[in-house]
Amino acid sequence: MPADILPLIYAVVLGYLFGSIPFGLILTRAAGLGDIRQIGSGNIGATNVLRTGNRPIAAATLVLDALKAVVPILIARHFWGEDAARLAALGAFLGHCFPVWLGFKGGKGVAVMIGSLLALHWPVGLIFCAVWLLIALTRKMSSLAALTAAATAPIFAYVLASERLAIVVLGLALLLFFQHRENIARLLKGTEPKIGDGKKAG
């Protein structure tokens, strides 16, 4: 195996290990809220944690899920360079969505994508957040906001950064769309719950 490939492999593994830390599950259990996988949509992300009614725990989950992408990206960039940083982001996303410790059933990746974009190229990350907020406030649908922000992110990455970053962001966006496939089906049917409805979705 070529020596220059090893750092890239290390970056993906590092990202996966950080990304697979199930903060939503850990925090809800620590707060005595039960198993988050038995609530709402059953995923371990901040949106589902919010369905417990505990906003501080949901906010903490959002921040920590973003940070579990930021940390391996910064480590990979420091030791192995920008290509490794981008692969660490991909690894973190895969770890969050498909954690080996939870039978490969994790979250949907919105917070991890935010953290990844902010760490890789912060202007793209801020635009992602702005698009999410705009759609969330106007259409009142968390899933639609995430999907719209993810769909536009590769374009902004290409225009503001580089083709290589755009390719990685496109990969993250496609994974996010895959994780939201049930939401997409409900959006097409017009049955997707709005923010605050409190229905089983996610």
TrEMBL record:
The keyword Disulfide bond does not apply. Its main location: membrane. It holds the Pfam family G3P_acyltransf. Pathway: Lipid metabolism; phospholipid metabolism. One of its GO terms (biological process) is phospholipid biosynthetic process. The keyword Transmembrane helix applies. Belongs to the PlsY family. NCBIfam families: glycerol-3-phosphate 1-O-acyltransferase PlsY. This is Glycerol-3-phosphate acyltransferase. The gene is plsY.
